[in-house]
Amino acid sequence: MAPSHAKELVYRGGHALRVAVISAFLLAPCFWHRHLEAGDLGSHVYNAWLAELVRSGRAPGLWIATQWNNVLFDWMLDGLGSCLGLMAAEKIAVAASVLVFFWGAFALVSALTGRRPWFLVPVLAMVTYGWTFYMGFFNYHLSIGLSLWALVCLLRSGGMWKLLAAALGAMTWFAHPMGTLWLVCAAAYFALASVAGRRVQVALAAAAAAVLFLAGHILRAHFETSFLTFATACGVNGSDQIVLREPYRLLAIALTLSGFLVVFGEYVKCRFEPGRFWPRFGMPIQLFLILWVGAWALPDFIAIPGMGRFGFIAERSSLISAVLACAVIGAAGYRRSLAIYCWAIAACYFALSYQDTGVLSRMETKVDSLLSAVGSGQRVFSTIDFGQRGSRLLFNHMVDRECVGRCFSFGNYEPATGHFRIRAKPDNGIVAATKFDVDAIWGGAYVVNATDLPAYGVYQPGGDWTVLAIRPLHAGEENGRRVVSQAAGPIP
Fold first, then answer.
1. CA 37/CA 399 separation, integer angstroms
2. Is the Cβ–Cβ distance between 134 and 39 less than 8 Å?
3. Closest by CA position to 395, among listed 435, 419, 424, 365
4. Strand partners, 360
5. 390: phi > 0 → left, psi -120 to 50 → alpha, else beta; which?
6. Whole-Å CA distances, 98 to 29, 34, 129, 182, 288
7. Could you give the residue ranges of the DSSP H alpha helices within 372-477?
8. Which sign, positive or negative, has the C-alpha torsion 248, 105, 361, 438?
9. To bridge 183 with a disulfide, which of 13, 147, 341, 474 should be the other Cys (CB 3.0-4.6 Å)?
10. Span 8-15, average pLDDT
């Protein structure tokens, strides 16, 4: 064997080992508590169970709609759940989404900068487990991860890579249409910018920003919309992905300032070497700034007649901004001091998130205990107040997940929205069929009907928001009322 070939094999073996070790550590948050607390995840698992009931004829009044987007993660739960059970399927599906997104982001940063950004691994890990993850938007999370891989394929030469990009692009649509929209727009921009000089690229970026403002104006004129203020939109720059409550904000500020200083330092250095800065930093900076402008120019919420209401558009887009910000910093090259700094911030971030999700996991264990007295097939109304702490960690679907296999979470929101597979007829007796009823249940203002009984309400009985209780409900009464915590603030 030639020495050069042997050296190449050793290099590839070391690279594969590094990827395996990083992947193993990366998946730790998926398994470090009994319950994986990630917002809508509990609802996804619950509706996967409802899908099983529908297919077996045990859920009269519910049906599975033919739907080709916002379903890929749910298909994964279905397939894995039928073989391994839903609890194992949940962990595996989330782990797959994490790996697809993380390594897709790593690969795109590598493709844009021409170097592997190992020193940014802790930052990419925080982004992977950021706001989008803890909201439980896993179809979107998976869609963006696949779109990043598709862009990497498009940046390579060769017809096979283009075919693979097309296949991945189709998968983004099955996961979430926002991922497909981002992929198409980014691919078109790459194609135009790659054959243009610096001045044309600047004009192209300005034109893209103008198109965003025009699109926002048209949407505002024809649909019910809600826009972020300029000040709020400025904060939706990618760093907001790691702000789960106030203590995290200091980490985001520290990371943003350090990244800005690194890039500014490179700019100053490159002024003495003309022609070096733009080829390295131009493309990621353009894409980052365009997305940042989009947070202000486009609506954050939009209601489309016949299709429902879509929200958190800017906050979702900041997941992509975070990856592009890493590409900008990655173009600066490796620095040992910056790598240590990033690892220190990541250690603080994951220590905080471990503590916070641990509290929620213990609350869900309590829900499990409370529901042990609820008979099979009975209805449960949850009036847990999940928004009183100024926190972005949601836990309103823990009751949904704990109902799997034993009772019905009557206030589950998915069938009523029309955005998911499971749909409900009125008076089905399993789940509320309208958004009005869902909102009333969550707010504690739903008037219990005799046909809803037997039913139980899970609620917070006092000032401590972590203490939960359950009580039987009676016909004619409201299912409960929100109890405002007097201990608002950080998770204890």
1. 12
2. yes
3. 365
4. none
5. left
6. 10, 18, 8, 19, 22
7. 398-403, 414-417, 435-443
8. positive
9. 147
10. 59
The domain limits of the chain are 67-334, 357-472
Alpha-carbon separation of residue 208 from 218, 293, 432, 467 (angstroms): 15, 10, 43, 50
Q: Are 97 and 142 in contact (CB under 8 A)?
A: yes
Distance in angstroms (rounded) separating the CA atoms of residues 35 and 27: 14
Question: With the CA atoms of 366, 367, 369 and 374 taken in that order, what torsion angle do they form, in degrees rounded to the nearest 10?
Answer: 160
- Dihedral sign for Cα atoms in the order 236, 331, 153, 102: negative
Report field, pTM of the whole predicted structure over 0.85: yes
Distance CA 178, CA 70 (A): 10
Separation CA 222–CA 143 (nearest Å): 28
Q: What is the dihedral of CA 341, 346, 348, 351, to 10 degrees?
A: -160
Specify the 3-state DSSP secondary structure of 378: coil
At residue 25, does pLDDT exceed 70?
A: yes
Q: Apex CA 313: angle with CA 483 and CA 260, to 5°?
A: 105
Beta bridge partners of 478: 447
Does the pLDDT of residue 209 top 90, yes or no? Answer: yes
**Does position 307 have pLDDT exceeding 90, yes or no?**
no
| Angle between helix 86-113 and helix 313-330 axes, rounded to 10 deg | 50
What is the C-alpha separation between 26 and 126, in angstroms, rounded? 10
Residue 203 to residue 201: CA distance in whole angstroms: 5
pLDDT, residue 486, reads: 35
The dihedral through the CA atoms of 129, 173, 41, 25 has a sign that is: negative
**Strand partners for 423:** 63
pLDDT digits (tens, 9 = 90+) for 269-298: 887 776 788 888 999 999 999 999 999 999
Neighbouring C-beta atoms of residue 470, cutoff 10 Å: 21
User: How many Å from the N-terminal Cα to the C-terminal Cα in the chain?
Assistant: 61
Tell me the pLDDT of the chain averaged across its residues: 91
As a three-state string, the secondary structure of 240-276 is HHHCCCHHHHHHHHHHHHHHHHHHHHHHHHHCCCCCC
pLDDT given at position 253: 96
Give residue 305's pLDDT band: very low, low, confident or very high (50, 70, 90): confident
Q: How confident is the model at residue 304, as a pLDDT?
A: 82
- At 62, the amino acid letter reads L
Q: What are phi and psi of 194, to 5 degrees?
A: -70, -20
Q: Work out the pLDDT band at 489, boundaries 50, 70, 90.
A: very low
* Residues in the chain, overall count: 492
Name the residue with tokens 């022609």: 275
pLDDT(1) > 90: no
